[in-house]
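Model: You mentioned two targets. I'll fold them one after the other.
Researcher: Yes, keep them separate.
Model: Target one:
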Amino acid sequence: MSTLAANGIRIRYDVHGAGPPLVMLHGATSIGREDFGPQIALFSKAFQLYVPDARGHGGTKWDVAGGFRYDWLVDDLAAFVDGIGLQTFHLLGFSMGAMTALQYAVRFGFRLRTLVVIGISPAREPRASVARRLMDPLRADRDDPAWGAVLARRHDEGQGVGAWRTLLPAIAADVAIQPLLSPADLHSIDAPAMVVCGDRDPFVPVGQAWELQRQLPDGRLFVVPDSGHEVTVRRPGLFNEGLAGFYRLTQAAAEARAAKADAAGTASGTGTTTEEGS
């Protein structure tokens, strides 16, 4: 476990393995080591994985009474990768992390070797309606106390006891108003990309995932059968197989993009600095 001061907060993150850098962004209300447990075990054999906690989640302290916005998460990611010294990297995001990844790719796509987004759509609905219904602390208390216990385990130590009760509605409120990416925005993302969704995902109908993939210049679609939203943990074997295949097929393109970005950074004299501690 490490922490890094970036964008005015202190980001907690884990590092696993060695190899090309792969940043993994978890979903709303979760933490990376739970969303990506089955992936960390496998892909740390081929990549160096960076798995940060989003602000207000896990060990990245943030009082959501001060607000919660997706564009802040993008700024956090930009500062994080600069802080750990990544010029280029692979980026993978799930749900909230996938929206962060998409928005980062629009702004800084030249730094991405590849992009994988799971369980996300640039459309507002049904994401906003599902989030409003599910991210209700009173509903959790009444209908799903076991989930409340999971949220407490994930967040109480780093955020304060019961902080998740404020986090849930803050996330739902942001989903309802966050600016939507346009087709032109999406078409600007030229990194090799894969869009993943479960065939029963309540947040992202398959048609929306297909539409997102269609608007990415080098996009692919992977629909995971017999799965809802959390494909990384519900169908880990199938998902891991598809992800490994994507990385094999795009390896040459990813290496070429990294070399081009590194050469451009060297020519311009730009670089990154590391500010890290435990």
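Model: Target two:
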Amino acid sequence: MNRRIPSNADTNDALRVLRERYRATIANTVAALRQLAQQLTRTPSAPEIVDALRRELHRIHGTAGSYGFADASRLAAELEQAAVRWAIDPVMDVDRRGNMTAEFADALELCVEGAASTDPTPEPARPPAPRATEQTSPSRATELVIVEDDPSLVEMLSYAFTTAGLSFRHFGTGPDALHGLLTMEVGQRRPVLLLDVDLPGLDGFSLHERLRVERPGAFTTVFLTARAGEAEQLRAYRAGAIDYVPKPVNLRILMAKLPSWLDLPRRAT
């Protein structure tokens, strides 16, 4: 199989390039958070606004740390937990929700735009490689499938997989993934399925269960999610997942694990 797992230097370079792209997009995220803050100031108990905030925070929690902005990820995780409690208790922090969200937006802007990443950069970056695109062809079996709704994290994974010469597909929602995976030709090799839990339309656990019933043995599943609790991990392993990777993602470790994941179906036959 024609693939090359990137070295740490390759991964460092990819992260530097992608981190700058993430930094360039953070203004849109901050603007969306400030709009949510204004909405929460007006109607702090509106469930749809609280849920929209929780989803945005969940996305930032998983992605910011993956790009090396650990403080932003930590702050997002803390406010995400508060938003989960707000959904249960309509009066909790009811007078502070807008202010807390606005303060987080300011902190996120500072963490990403005004502070250095926690990821070391010992040498200058090499010239940036082209943006990664989904790699599939009729004559080549898909080795990896990404099921993830966060475009920033998808770009990071796609960039790394493209560098390694890996073929992959991407689905952004649970229903799209279910339809695509039920009809995907896999040949003799089971593709590795990198599966998020919090997906629009159909969660990752439910998707995994459907695949186990309707396409048993067709895919090798690795959960890739911000849900890092013991109960979720036990559920995944008991359902047949071979690994459980918590977000924020350490790209170096993920890429180091890839050869064993990809080789597992061959060793199991």
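Researcher: Noted. Anything on target two?
Model: Residues 22-114 form a domain with the Four Helix Bundle (Hemerythrin (Met), subunit A) fold (CATH 1.20.120).
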